[in-house]
Each structure stands twice: as C-alpha cells, then as structure tokens.
Amino acid sequence: MNVSRRRLSAIALAVLVGAAALVSASSDAFAQTGTIRIIVPYPAGGGIDVVGRLFAHQISAAQGVTMVVEDRPGAATIIGTDFVSRAAPDGNTLLLVANSFVVASQLRPVNYDAIKSFVPICSLTATPSLLAVNKASPFHTLADLVEAARAQPNKLTIASTIGAALQVTYEMFRMRANFSMTFVSFPGTPPAVTALLGGHVDAIYTDYPTVLPHLKSGAVRALAVGSRTRMETFQDVPTFDESGYKGFEAEIWYGLFAPAGTPVDVTARLAKWFTAALPDADVKARLAAQGLRPVGLCGASFADQVRKDYDEFGRVIHVANIKAE
Predict the structure, then answer these.
(1) pLDDT tens by residue, 256-286
(2) What is the pLDDT at residue 127?
(3) Which residues share a beta bridge with 126?
(4) Which alpha helices (DSSP H) does 33-132 contain, by range?
(5) Which residues contact 321 (CB under 8 A, 6 or more apart)?
(6) How many angstroms separate the CA atoms of 36 and 59, rounded?
(7) What is the pLDDT of residue 75?
(8) Residue (of 322, 173, 182, 140) closest to 249 by Cα position
(9) Which of 58, 217, 262, 325 has the highest CB neighbour number within 10 Å of its CB?
(10) At a CB cut-off of 8 Å and minimum separation 6, what does 32 contact?
(11) What is the C-alpha to C-alpha distance for residues 157 and 198, in angstroms, rounded to an integer?
C-alpha cells in the first residue's frame, strides 16, 4: 500500500513538473513565436512614438526578438488603448502611453477600465511639466505671474492641452496657488506653444520636450519646472517647490502596459528587457536630447503610482469640473 502510494505520488509529481515545463517553455517562447507590437495611441513622429521606436530597436537587437511600434491615434488615446485592452494577454501586444492614460477614461465614455483592464509593467521615462512665458513677457518669476493673476482674475490667459494630465496638473497648481487665469485649450502641446510664440496667450503650461527648442533659442522663458530638482540644462529655472509651493511636483511619465491576464513571468521578462535598455549609452543620449530622464519603476511600484495618479487626478477633475471639450 505504501509502495503504491509512493508510485502515485511520483507520477503526480512528474505530471506537475511536466506541466510546469510546458508553461515555462510556452512563456519563454512567446516573444520568439511572433512580433511584439508596442501600440502607441498617438500620431507618428511625436515624442512618445520616438521613445517607443528607440526601445523597440534596442530590445530587438539585444534580445534577438522582433519588436515594432504601431501607431493607433484617435479619440484622445482611447482608440489605441481600447485595442490593447482587447488583445490576447500573451505579451505580444503592449501599450506605451503617457499618464494622460489615467485622465482620458475619467473624462470620456470608454469600453475599458484604466485600472482593471491592464497590467502596469514599467514607467520608462519621465519629463517635467513647466510654466513658461514669451520672451517679451513682463513676468520674470512665477510670483510675478501669480500676483498679477490674483490682482485681475481671468484677465490673463494660459494655454495647455485639454483633457490631459497637463490640464489636470495645471488645475492642481492653480488651486494650490489660489489664482484665476482664462484657460485656452488646445488639442495638443505644439499648437499651444505656437500660440505663445505668436503672443496670443500670456503663458503656457506644457511639457518640457515640446518647448525645449524654444527655451534653447530664448524665444520662451520658463518660470518654474515641475521636477523635484532643477533641470541640468537650465539650472537658472527654479522648481515649483523652490518657488514657494512646497512638495508640488508634476511630471509626465511614459509607461508600458499589457492586457489584464498577461502571465506574471511574461510581464517580469518584459520589465527586465526594458530596464536593461535604459543604461544603454545610445538610449540615454537620445532620451536626454528629448528632455526625458530614465525611470525604470516597474511591477507593483508602478502599479501603485498608476493607482495614486488615477485617484488624485480624479479628485481634481471633479473639483475643477474639467470636461473633455
């Protein structure tokens, strides 16, 4: 009887080992059996598209896989994001998106849940938001602008992107600083910058990469930056924290997600590949040229960040009554 039991236990163990081996072999082979697509829900040529192609090229070469970027813009990132939410959870279809990801689904009807329909893999890069003015502006510090806006509520104008993380973080700062400016909305940051350059608005709240060339040329002057420390290339620009708003930080992150249900070993492998690409000299140089810093926050830590942003941005959307249009 004991021998029989030992034989049954041995058979059961063999079956379990064999099944585990099959699962392991299947997950090990997922990338080699097909092309890994990074879906970017933005137009081709934009900052996040460039970042996606940079990582896809480096990982393809380093890991011996085929990784490509596929742009699926439209409906404020909803079209591409919805596509990934319905993709097979096998690690072959990924989403690369900015933190406006947690805003879009709270402003518009969508067929997915920003938290439950995806597995956060890694926050790859980040860049600060900043508040800037035209070079001809009479405002030379953040205090100058805030004081003028308090003195004449809604007389001054500020441009930014509607229905995105930039609009939400601007409202966070505006409520913190207790002032009012007329918000002039644009469908993206480039036209907002154009309006500032043309003198059509008094200020802009935007992301660092979009306005970087104009900061370098001197056409635009930054008053404060949303990073924890000053930018290396513009050491004379103070942070919001240094400008009197202690603890205020506002960065745009670019994060990688997979459809819900993607196996943990698959997402862990993807996280390992992407974080291994961050120290690459070419990757670092090209990110820096775009005003981006490497992050590499992965797994549960990134999931916590996504949840925190979702809840915090949701509160601001409600209090400030932000609408999609």
Answers:
(1) 999 999 999 999 999 999 999 999 999 999 9
(2) 93
(3) 253, 293
(4) 47-63, 78-85, 101-107
(5) none
(6) 11
(7) 87
(8) 173
(9) 262
(10) 64, 65
(11) 13
Which of 203, 201, 200 is CA-nearest to residue 177?
203
- Measured CA to CA, the distance from residue 103 to residue 323 in angstroms comes to 11
Angstrom CA distances, 185 to 170, 190, 212, 322, stand at 12, 12, 20, 11
Contact 63, 273 (CB under 8 A): yes
H/E segment holding residue 169: helix 165-177
Q: Which domains does the chain have, with CATH numbers?
A: 27-126+253-320 (3.40.190.150), 127-225 (3.40.190.10)
The Cα-based distances of 184 to 7, 156, 201, 202, 247 in angstroms read 76, 10, 8, 10, 27
pLDDT digits over 212-262, tens only?
999 999 999 999 999 999 998 899 999 999 999 999 999 999 999 999 999
pTM above 0.90, yes or no: no
Q: What percent of the chain has pLDDT over 70?
A: 90
Token representation of residue 198: 């043309």
Separation between Cα atoms, residue 203 and residue 222, nearest integer Å:
10
Q: What is the pLDDT of residue 130?
A: 96
* Average pLDDT score over the chain: 89
Given a cut of 50, the residues of the chain with pLDDT beneath it are 1-32
